[in-house]
Amino acid sequence: MKIAINCAFYQPRSGGIAEYILNLVSNMALLDKEDEFILYVLKDMEEYAFQNFPRAFKIKTIPFRSSGLHRISRSLFEQGFWRKEEETERFDLFHSPFFHAPHFKRAKVLMTVHDLRFYRFPYTYSFPRYVYLKFAVKESCLRADHIVTISQFTKDELMCAYGLSDERITVVHEAINKERFSPLTGDAFVLPERFRFLKDSPYILSVGHLEPRKNYVRLIDAFDILKKKSGLADLKLLIVGKKGHHYDNIIKKVNENADVVYLDFVEHDFLRWLYGNASLFAFPSYYEGFGFPPLEAGCYGVVSAVSKISSMPEVCGDAVYYFDPYDVENMADVMMTALTDPVGRSEKKELMAKQIDGFSWEKNARQTIDLYKRVYGETA
């Protein structure tokens, strides 16, 4: 079987989708020695892909770049490119690792849907982008031969939104690359001079793009309450993540509180240091298709306090402390407990180690390969 995978979202700083693509194809290269793979990347991402993708897989470029104007052009004109590629490469199956896919004459289409944020929170998109997604995603979902969702939560969302049957959707959980999130050793990382104060300050860490669904404004309010109740004068709140959209209120809130530090996007080794030295990880998001960060924190033995809605109970099980993301008093109380409950913290650390082991990229890749065979009509 010849399999094409659209890796257009494999770019630096692309977050969860880029991690998904890299871990999926890397593990497929180890598991599948029979099928032929073509990985399609954007024109200006070719070198980046060659540095990181498996050498065994063929890499081809899509004639668009990653910049804003090219994203619009790609949305409007890439269909013609894919029709030509289908004729040239004669691939049997096309996998779109995100929620829209081109039309094909003969190739089967498998599509991964991570979440339906645009459907639940349309105001977080520009109007043209929302209109495009509203029609393109629904049309792609109804036309795809099969859909993968990264959580049962997202599967339920899809079935509700588009009336899709249970049989057309398979849940294949994402995972954590434990090698990528392994503890730093020795002098593997030198803390930048302007952040040396972190060595002497306990802090709560939160990671994720700055956007409304990440719920940072309430987290900062809860942190203020926690500080007043706890008497932990030196405690700080660190927020790591690039600016997404509608972030002005968050930045305003950060600037009003001297104990809240916004670090923007940080390089990976710095992120590893921040995880490894945190007193607590907080994840207040009220909408996640699959929330990676609490599992990432767990790789460093760091306890988490997280939102009790969307996919988080499915991902974290009993291995974290849960709060109501809309109740800042409850959020503050739960974080206080998570910081000061030694017996509970020890239990959560043990449970999280087991929880992480339940999510494997090898398992993800194996299940996805089996789906390829099933969708194409072979016996898995």
Give an overview in words.
This protein has 380 residues and is an alpha/beta fold. It is built from 14 helices and 13 strands. Strand 12, helix 11 and strand 13 form a beta-alpha-beta unit. Helix 1 packs across helix 14. The longest helix has 22 residues, at 68-89. The chain starts with a strand and ends with a helix.
Derived structural class: alpha/beta
In DSSP terms (H or I, runs of 4 or more residues), the helix count works out at 14
DSSP summary, beta strand count: 13
Instruction: Please estimate the helix content.
Output: 40-55%
Mean pLDDT: 92
SS strand fraction: 15-25%
What's the SSE blueprint?
Layout: E1 2-6, H1 16-31, E2 36-42, H2 46-52, E3 58-62, H3 68-89, E4 93-96, E5 108-113, H4 117-120, H5 127-143, E6 146-149, H6 152-162, E7 169-171, E8 203-207, H7 216-230, E9 236-240, H8 248-255, E10 260-264, H9 268-277, E11 280-283, H10 293-298, E12 304-307, H11 312-316, E13 321-323, H12 328-340, H13 342-357, H14 361-376
Helix pairs in contact: 1-14, 7-12
Q: What distinguishing features does this structure have?
A:
single chain, 380 residues, alpha/beta, 7-stranded parallel beta sheet, 16% strand, globular
How would you summarize what this structure contains?
This protein has helices spanning 16-31, 46-52, 68-89, 117-120, 127-143, 152-162, 216-230, 248-255, 268-277, 293-298, 312-316, 328-340, 342-357, 361-376, and strands spanning 2-6, 36-42, 58-62, 93-96, 108-113, 146-149, 169-171, 203-207, 236-240, 260-264, 280-283, 304-307, 321-323. With 380 residues, it is an alpha/beta fold.
